[in-house]
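Predict the 3D structure for this chain.
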Amino acid sequence: MDHLEKLIEIEPSAVHRADVRRLMVDASVVSLVGGMNPDAERLFVFLSTRAGTAGPDVMFELVTTRGGTRAAAYAEELLRREDVRAQGTPAFKVAYEMKTATTCQARLAMFDRIKKEGDLRCNQFLFQMAKCGKGPTDCCVVNDPAYKEVVRVLNAKK
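Done. Predicted structure below.
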């Protein structure tokens, strides 16, 4: 944490670099292996209060790619807080809402926002929609032109 804070002090934009974000994700997982401790708490306080838009991004990555870890569980707990989510980018916010939506209808209602604000993080939740029934042919959206359009728009944003 000392090194991360020093780096951010010297180069504030470093928090948005892919390598620094990977470091924060990895450090989050490692720091909580033995349970909550001062270093882990310090890192998560940084992510939830001082990392700006990168904080919710890193915690969302923990939740969606490191499921089953203590770090992912704690990040998910923090992301339930409106004050933490409010720091995120519009792309994070729409991806988080897609993740937490409980029905395909709720996700369908977000298609316009996803096309405008979303990024590739939304794809995994769109693909889940294609399996909402027993199989791809039982899905409520598999042949929906709006569904195909939102997937096309997101994939074009690569």
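The longest helix spans residues 18-31.
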